């Protein structure tokens, strides 16, 4: 087999198969770095001053956006209950936060592109680490970075950046105020979430009605294996401007019918059901999602948000998932006309268990 002169040099390291020729070319030369092209801000001091002013102006705009978001939270309080305040609250807080983050990002980008040093350099890799010389080199690298970025010298940029970054966090912290209970002289329970969720519209003798049309439910109409979404009958007469959604959110119930012998009832709760018909709060005891998925073969209720499962045959106890306690049961009975009615309100707070933590 014939080989050229260059391939002869490779015979010690690589032996080609018979009939295979090898062509070796010269290695590609390193072209090096392209010629450095100066920016306008590098050539013209006035352009550099303009760029610096633009950067810290953007940072101050970001600061103003953060302050406006906090002010909008106070000017349009959602606690007022007015729909227009809720809309303006969301609109102006969102605009303030959006402006703050946009200006902060634009300022940082313009700073890096127009003000910071853009000279190319090569940083050789080495195997040493942990030595005193390495530590000194690291300190020098930080010092060089500070010098090139101008962070230490350009005080207006530095101070405006720090102010904008700190202020950008404030709107988010302010919004947590909405999670705190607020007191009201007219309603002593307004500042106590436990008290608010301990009582609903349900009262003794109040009929169970279909959601949303408000039709009263006869016990004879509840078929075996069925599940009905239920609200208090008087709730259908409440205007949507009179706290309808708040009352409905607490009082929603899921009504199901099983064979009476399938129920495993405690002695003190045997009178809470009627002929295999049971009613449980739809509000999940994990974070308050609506528990509305009923599997009639296993008699399990499923919360679609985080997959908590409750056993309807045994007082809706938790059998899977993050929920901490069973769904509250609504005691029910039948009135003289055969309609299902509540015996009383729930005997425990509805909704997430964390409301009960003091």
UniProtKB/TrEMBL annotation:
Entries under CDD domains matching the protein:
Rieske
Location of the protein in the cell: Cell membrane
Q: Which UniProt keywords apply?
A: 2Fe-2S, Cell membrane, Disulfide bond, Electron transport, Iron, Iron-sulfur, Membrane, Metal-binding, Oxidoreductase, Respiratory chain, Transmembrane, Transmembrane helix, Transport
Instruction: Enumerate the InterPro entries for this protein.
Output: QcrA_N (IPR045603), Rieske_2Fe-2S (IPR017941), Rieske_2Fe-2S_sf (IPR036922), Rieske_Fe-S_prot (IPR014349), Rieske_Fe-S_prot_C (IPR005805)
UniProt GO cellular component terms:
plasma membrane
Q: How does it sit in the membrane?
A: Multi-pass membrane protein
Residues covered by the Rieske domain: 250-341
The stretch of residues making up the signal peptide is: none
Q: Identify which cofactors the protein needs according to its UniProt entry.
A: [2Fe-2S] cluster
Transmembrane feature ranges: 55-76, 88-109, 161-180
GO MF annotations, alphabetized: 2 iron, 2 sulfur cluster binding; metal ion binding; monooxygenase activity; oxidoreductase activity, acting on paired donors, with incorporation or reduction of molecular oxygen
User: Segment Disordered: which positions?
Assistant: 1-43
Supply the Pfam families for this chain: QcrA_N, Rieske
Function, in words: Iron-sulfur subunit of the cytochrome bc1 complex, an essential component of the respiratory electron transport chain required for ATP synthesis. The bc1 complex catalyzes the oxidation of menaquinol and the reduction of cytochrome c in the respiratory chain. The bc1 complex operates through a Q-cycle mechanism that couples electron transfer to generation of the proton gradient that drives ATP synthesis.
- Database matches in PANTHER family: CYTOCHROME B-C1 COMPLEX SUBUNIT RIESKE, MITOCHONDRIAL
Q: Which family does it belong to?
A: Belongs to the Rieske iron-sulfur protein family.
Query: What is the protein name given in its UniProt record?
Result: Cytochrome bc1 complex Rieske iron-sulfur subunit
């Amino acid at each position: 087999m014939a080989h050229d002169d260059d391939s002869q040099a490779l015979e010690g390291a690589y032996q080609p198969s018979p009939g295979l020729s090898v062509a070796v070319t010269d290695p590609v030369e390193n072209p090096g770095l392209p010629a450095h092209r100066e920016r306008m801000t590098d050539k013209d001091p006035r352009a550099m001053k303009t760029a610096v002013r633009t950067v810290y102006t953007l940072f101050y705009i970001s600061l103003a956006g953060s302050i406006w978001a906090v002010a909008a939270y106070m000017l349009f309080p959602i606690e007022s209950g007015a729909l227009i305040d809720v809309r303006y609250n969301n609109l102006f807080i969102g605009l303030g936060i959006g402006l703050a983050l946009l200006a902060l990002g634009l300022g940082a980008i313009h700073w890096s592109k127009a003000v910071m040093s853009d000279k190319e350099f090569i940083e050789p890799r080495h195997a040493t680490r942990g030595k005193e010389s390495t530590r000194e080199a690291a300190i020098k690298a930080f010092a060089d970075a500070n010098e090139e970025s101008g962070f230490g010298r350009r005080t207006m940029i530095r101070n405006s950046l720090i102010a904008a970054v700190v202020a950008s966090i404030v709107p988010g912290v302010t919004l947590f105020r909405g999670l705190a209970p607020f007191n009201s002289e007219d309603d002593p329970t307004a500042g106590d979430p436990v008290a608010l969720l301990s009582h609903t519209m349900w009262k003794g003798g109040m009929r169970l009605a279909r959601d949303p049309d408000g039709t009263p439910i006869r016990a004879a109409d509840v078929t075996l294996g069925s599940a009905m979404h239920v609200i208090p009958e008087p709730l259908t007469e409440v205007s949507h401007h009179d706290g309808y959604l708040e009352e409905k959110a607490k009082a929603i119930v899921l009504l199901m019918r099983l064979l009476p012998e399938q129920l495993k009832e405690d002695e003190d709760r045997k009178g809470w059901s009627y002929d295999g018909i049971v009613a449980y709060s739809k509000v999940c005891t994990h974070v308050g999602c609506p528990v509305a998925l009923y599997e009639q073969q296993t008699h399990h209720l499923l919360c679609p948000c985080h997959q908590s499962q409750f056993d309807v045959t045994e007082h809706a106890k938790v059998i899977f998932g993050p929920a901490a306690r069973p769904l509250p049961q609504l005691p029910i009975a039948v009135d003289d006309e055969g309609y299902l009615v509540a015996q009383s309100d729930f005997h425990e707070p509805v909704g997430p268990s964390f409301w009960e933590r003091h």
